[in-house]
């Protein structure tokens, strides 16, 4: 590993200034569970590392039924999992964060880092997309809001420009009878990378068991995480039954563009997209039925 | 279950004292190879081939040499040309010519990761940078990645000088088989007896299947390392992590063409080996870099280097045909095995052939086994080398035969089980063995008698056989002035063997185990001791310690006799005290006597050296396992619900460590069964050279493994001990495959049975059923 300069700013403004000053040569550091490994492997070679963990805004979780959720980019997966509101209102995102690595990794790893790393296989990203999460980004030219499904632009690449910092995620409070779920397939039971990940969020009308809203997102089956728009839309207004699930699973499978590699063949991955989509929708619906909030 | 033996009343043996090396290990104080440092030390890095098969046209080190901080660079040019010598090194038969070529490629690179040059510099980073500055011109050749491809006529040849040799036994130099032309098959061994045709004619059922297994690595946690200092007087000191310090000395001497006696090897605490650390990779390179630079040189492999360039065990291709009568008697077996050796000859094709069907009486059989070179790293030993693959094939076929006969698979094994006097596949008859007892232990276990219900769940069993290594060991037992004792051996401690040596000495000398310290000495401080391998340390080095302790005891009796003015035979020893026969003097404990040694002739040191015998002659080990699985038919993922292993251990000296060996072996076997494999791309480049994608099971992937200790005393050992370290890895793959079959009706014949492979088999079967149904309509 080469020598680096380390900075630890206390405010967003200071961080943006540092990042902007060094442009391409600078890189934010959150938990470091991706970045440090990339530094050691030589796959990323920044000269300035700007630690964002000392900035209070990046560390907060604030939730209310009126204003929804503000989730700081640097909140560790453990803090997220230990938060009662997160577990209650966003069980899918919470379980995704709780799948990342091990307890040791989770006590450092952040959801912001998971997204900004730009991996198509990050576990939190499909869960965020399913929830319709938006990313608040601050840079030298001010602030912008980016929907998570458009945030990653290719393997290891994101919309972030030099000098820009992801501050937090904005997520609506869940509607009555809505919920989310995330499942990934890995050959082992822990310490593994998703062969396929599927996030799903559903809002049901319990009077006639119809789907009011649905979002399905796929991980690890293309160069970026994928919002399965057609599969999601296919459910809306439909009765939530086996046929609807099967149809959505089929449509989700059709937008997956996986490759053959050592983690599985393209054919295998497509098959698993269908299996996980059905399972995720079933879990999300079960949770939604019991969600009496509001 | 236990056989009666002359040693019923052990005080220490069979108890579970706390491991003496434990505290240092869990507090991070233990010194592993990478922890050593010397003043002025340089760091070495290796340039490795990015190609699986290529001719080296030129190597230019000029730029790298100029890089600031670089002190020395070596390539094959700096190594002597080693003539082909087959050296018996402990349990290994080593061709030193190929060993030399494996350590540093000359003319040709034969696998992705093959070493081409090494740099010593003032820091590891500088050495790494300099490695990237070395320019190599290659002529890329077509790689040959599997035994099947390598055996095809017209396959590209790896080693022009290789001809196929037919061998009659494991150490037979063999005679040329077939035409005098280059071949990728350096060895063929055949065992034959009875009349195959008649055997198959007498069968009511015949099962014939093909199998394959993937290349798998031992997965020891500590990467290879070496710190070498070539002193001005020509003496070389090497600190390293190894299973055999004397092996390192012999092999390094042969590669560098220097006298063995000029090398001292200091074995560090070892972070696992499982057979993989019985040879050398870095040691000769670090030594030569030290000679060139005049400074100590330390080299530590990365995980990627470990996976790419150290020896895993063979991938295989196998065919088995077996017949049985309706009442479950095996009538004939025909077995064809091909083991991938990696880039140089020397796969465990012979032991694979010697072990398969070892647990059974088979009157008519033919086993052909082949050693095949391919463009993968040269294999090294791995727990029961050769036996797990061939057992996977035969034990699966046996399960199928048992099913066809409608006989419980354990009962089927009992009906064919080998006993004392049964000839092994290779010929010699077994002495007293405990195979049948392991089957009975599983049959009678709570696990096997419990019900397994629920959809997609199944239970499988399988058995396995492996030899015990005897070989050479030395031990000294020092009686100190305060009555404490130290035991010195040359056996690197992998499985808790220091604790066991201390226990043996404590038992013989009648002292508390806490008063005995066992340590591992370097190659100049103890007599020759063969490798920690072949399950031989508690067994053979234990025998040496037992004899050395008795030697000390004999001397102590003489001293007591002197004190009491008696003849030595008039002194008795029991319960830790010396007494004079027919005399009123109060007994003397060993502690009391120890304080009086100075007055009776000086210190007492017991010593013993021995050759415990050839591999297999000293003892044999058997295991039978039972595994419950649940298969997710939508994803192909297998969950291990429960597993139990029964193993004949002869005598459990420290039952916890015996159980640990059984559990560890089983855990590795399950990884081999379900997830571990080398994944090469079309060009022969290893794609999963890290532990994320080379998937070993984590503790969350396995339930607690239940260990049933079976004790059928080994008649060749004074304490009845058998080697326990290896055989447990032999049966799990077949047991998991058999369990999967019972769960979902799919017979898996390829390892690993990973989710993509298993799902494909499930879907193929479903489609077949659909097509058959359609055809029937
Ligand atoms: C052993 C191990 C197991 C793992 N298992 C999993 C797993 O199961 N699932 C999974 O998805 N991942 C896994 N990972 C990867 C990693 O832990 C996750 O991606 C994690 O969420 C990264 O978060 P971090 O805070 O550590 O990111 P960092 O490493 O700090 O940063 C990651 C990237 O994001 C950038 N970045 C970080 N914060 C910001 C910000 N606020 N604004 C702009 N850019 C930013 C950094 O510059 C860097 O490029 C594992 C890693 C390890 C080492």
General shape of chain A: globular
The level of helicity of chain B is: 25-40%
- How do the strands of the widest beta sheet of chain B line up side by side? 3-7-1-16-13-14-15
CATH topology of the domain at 438-458 and 620-777 in chain B: Aldehyde Oxidoreductase, domain 4
* CATH second-level architecture of the largest domain in chain A: 2-Layer Sandwich
Quaternary structure annotation? heterodimer
Explain what the structure shows.
The complex is a heterodimer of chains A (294) and B (777). With 294 residues, chain A is α+β, with helices and mostly antiparallel strands. Chain A has three domains: 5-51, 2-Layer Sandwich (Uridine Diphospho-n-acetylenolpyruvylglucosamine Reductase, domain 2), CATH 3.30.43.10; 56-171, Uridine Diphospho-n-acetylenolpyruvylglucosamine Reductase, domain 3 (2-Layer Sandwich), CATH 3.30.465; 178-289, CO dehydrogenase flavoprotein, C-terminal domain (Enolase-like, domain 1, 2-Layer Sandwich). The termini of chain A are far apart. In chain A, 34% of the residues lie in helices and 25% in strands. In chain A, the strands form four sheets. Chain A has a five-stranded antiparallel beta sheet. A four-stranded antiparallel beta sheet of chain A has the order 11-12-13-14. In chain A, a hairpin with a 3-residue loop joins strand 4 and strand 5 (68-72). Chain A is globular. In chain B, 58% of the residues are buried. Chain B has 777 residues and is α+β, with helices and mostly antiparallel strands. Among the domains of chain B are: 438-458 and 620-777, Aldehyde oxidase/xanthine dehydrogenase, molybdopterin binding domain (Aldehyde Oxidoreductase, domain 4, 2-Layer Sandwich), CATH 3.30.365.10; 472-611, Aldehyde oxidase/xanthine dehydrogenase, molybdopterin binding domain (Aldehyde Oxidoreductase, domain 4). In chain B, helix 10 (349-355) runs parallel beside helix 11 (387-405), helix 11 (387-405) packs parallel to helix 19 (732-744) and helix 15 packs parallel to helix 16. In chain B, strand 21 and strand 22 (485-489) form a beta hairpin. The radius of gyration of chain B is 27 Å and the shape is globular. Chain B is built from 20 helices and 30 strands. At the A-B interface, helix 11 of A face helix 20 of B. Bound molecules: flavin-adenine dinucleotide. Flavin-adenine dinucleotide binds at residues 27-35, 37, 52, 73-74, 99-101, 105, 108-110, 112-114, 116-117, 122-123, 160, 165-166, 191 of chain A.
């Amino acid at each position: 590993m080469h020598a680096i300069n380390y900075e630890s700013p206390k405010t967003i403004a200071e961080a943006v200034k540092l990042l902007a000053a060094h442009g391409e040569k600078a890189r934010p550091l959150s938990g470091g569970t991706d970045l440090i490994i990339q530094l050691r492997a030589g796959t990323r070679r920044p000269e300035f590392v700007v630690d964002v963990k000392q900035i209070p805004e990046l560390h907060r979780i604030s939730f209310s039924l009126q204003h929804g959720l503000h989730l700081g980019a640097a909140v560790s997966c453990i803090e997220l999992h230990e938060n009662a509101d997160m577990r209650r209102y966003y069980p899918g995102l919470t379980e995704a964060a709780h799948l990342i690595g091990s307890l040791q990794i989770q006590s450092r790893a952040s959801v912001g880092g998971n997204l900004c790393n730009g991996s198509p296989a990050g576990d939190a990203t499909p869960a965020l997309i399913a929830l319709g999460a938006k990313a608040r980004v601050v840079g030298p030219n001010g602030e912008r809001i980016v929907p998570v499904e458009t945030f990653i632009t290719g393997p290891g690449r994101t919309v972030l420009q030099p000098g820009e910092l992801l501050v937090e995620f904005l997520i609506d409070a869940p509607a009555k009878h809505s919920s989310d779920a995330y499942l990934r397939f890995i050959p082992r039971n822990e310490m593994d990378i998703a062969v396929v990940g599927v996030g799903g969020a559903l809002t049901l009308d319990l009077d006639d068991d119809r789907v009011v809203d649905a979002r399905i997102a796929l991980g690890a089956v293309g160069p970026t995480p994928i919002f399965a728009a057609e599969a999601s839309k296919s459910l809306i207004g439909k009765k939530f039954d086996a046929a609807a699930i099967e149809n959505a699973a089929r449509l989700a499978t059709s937008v997956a563009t996986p490759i053959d590699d050592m983690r599985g063949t393209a054919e295998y991955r497509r098959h698993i997209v269908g299996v996980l989509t059905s399972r995720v929708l079933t879990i999300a619906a079960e949770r939604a039925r019991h969600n009496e909030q509001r | 279950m236990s056989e009666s033996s002359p040693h019923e009343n052990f005080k220490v043996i069979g108890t579970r004292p706390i491991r003496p090396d434990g505290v240092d290990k869990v507090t991070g104080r233990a010194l592993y190879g990478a922890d050593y440092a010397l003043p002025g030390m340089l760091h070495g890095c290796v340039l490795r081939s990015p190609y699986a098969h290529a001719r080296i046209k030129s190597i230019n080190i000029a730029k790298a040499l100029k890089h600031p901080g670089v002190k020395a660079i070596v390539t094959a040019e700096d190594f002597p040309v080693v003539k082909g010598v087959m050296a018996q090194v402990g349990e290994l038969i080593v061709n030193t010519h190929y060993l030399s070529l494996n350590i540093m490629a000359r003319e040709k690179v034969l696998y992705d990761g093959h070493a081409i040059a090494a740099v010593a510099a003032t820091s590891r980073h500088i050495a790494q940078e300099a490695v990237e500055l070395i320019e190599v011109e290659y002529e890329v050749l077509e790689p040959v990645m599997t035994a099947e491809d390598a055996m095809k006529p017209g396959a590209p040849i790896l080693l022009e000088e290789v001809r196929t040799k037919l061998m009659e036994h494991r150490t037979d130099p063999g005679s040329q088989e077939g035409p005098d032309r280059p071949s990728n098959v350096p060895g063929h061994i055949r065992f034959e007896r009875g009349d195959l045709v008649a055997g198959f004619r007498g069968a009511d059922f015949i099962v014939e299947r093909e199998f394959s297994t993937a290349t798998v690595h031992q997965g020891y946690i500590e990467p290879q390392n070496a710190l070498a200092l070539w002193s001005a007087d020509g003496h070389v000191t090497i600190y390293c992590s190894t299973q055999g310090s004397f092996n390192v000395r012999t092999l390094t001497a042969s590669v560098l063409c220097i006298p063995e006696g000029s090398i001292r090897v200091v074995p560090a605490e070892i972070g696992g080996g499982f057979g993989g650390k019985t040879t050398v990779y870095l040691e000769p390179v670090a030594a030569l870099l030290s000679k060139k630079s005049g400074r100590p040189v330390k080299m530590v492999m990365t995980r990627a280097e470990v996976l790419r360039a150290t020896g895993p065990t063979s991938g295989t291709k196998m065919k088995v045909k077996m017949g049985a009568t309706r009442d479950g008697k095996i009538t004939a077996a025909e077995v064809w095995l091909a083991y991938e050796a990696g880039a140089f000859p020397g796969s465990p094709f012979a032991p694979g052939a010697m072990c398969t069907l070892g647990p059974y009486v088979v009157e008519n059989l033919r086993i052909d086994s082949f050693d095949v070179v391919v463009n993968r790293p040269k294999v090294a030993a791995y727990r029961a080398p050769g036996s797990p693959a061939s057992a996977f094939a035969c034990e699966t076929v046996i399960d199928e035969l048992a099913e066809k006969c409608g006989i419980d698979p354990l009962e089927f094994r009992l009906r064919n089980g080998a006993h004392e006097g049964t000839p092994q596949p290779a010929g010699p008859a077994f002495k007293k063995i405990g195979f049948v007892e392991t089957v009975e232990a599983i049959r009678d276990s709570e696990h096997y008698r419990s019900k397994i219900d629920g959809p997609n769940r199944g239970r499988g069993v399988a058995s396995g056989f492996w030899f015990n290594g005897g070989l050479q060991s030395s031990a000294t037992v020092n009686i100190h002035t305060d009555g404490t004792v130290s035991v010195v051996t040359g056996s690197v401690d992998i499985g808790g063997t220091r604790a066991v040596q201390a226990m043996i000495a404590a038992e013989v000398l009648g002292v508390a185990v806490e008063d005995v310290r066992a340590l591992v000495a370097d190659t100049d401080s103890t007599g020759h001791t063969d490798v920690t391998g072949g399950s031989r340390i508690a067994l053979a080095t234990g025998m040496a310690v037992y004899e050395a302790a008795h030697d000390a005891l004999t001397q102590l009796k003489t001293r007591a006799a002197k004190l009491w003015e008696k003849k030595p035979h008039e002194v008795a020893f029991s319960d830790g005290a010396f007494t004079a026969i027919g005399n009123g003097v109060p007994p003397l404990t060993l502690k009391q006597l120890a304080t009086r040694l100075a007055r009776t002739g000086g210190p007492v040191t017991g010593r013993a050296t021995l050759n415990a015998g050839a591999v297999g002659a000293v003892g044999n080990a058997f295991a039978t396992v039972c595994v419950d699985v649940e298969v997710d038919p939508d994803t192909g993922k297998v969950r291990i619900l429960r597993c139990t292993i029964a193993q004949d251990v002869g005598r459990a000296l420290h039952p916890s460590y015996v159980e640990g060996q059984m559990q560890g072996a089983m855990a590795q076997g399950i990884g081999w069964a379900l997830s571990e494999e080398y994944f090469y791309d079309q060009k022969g480049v290893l794609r999963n050279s890290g532990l994320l994608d080379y998937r070993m099971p984590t503790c969350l992937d396995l339930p607690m493994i239940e260990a049933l200790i079976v004790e059928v005393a080994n008649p060749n050992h004074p304490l009845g001990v058998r080697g326990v370290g290896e055989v447990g890895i032999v049966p799990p793959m077949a047991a998991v495959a058999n369990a999967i079959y019972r769960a979902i009706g799919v017979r898996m014949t390829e390892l690993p049975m990973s989710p993509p492979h298993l799902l494909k088999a499930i879907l193929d079967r479903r489609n077949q059923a659909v097509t058959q149904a359609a055809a029937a309509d």
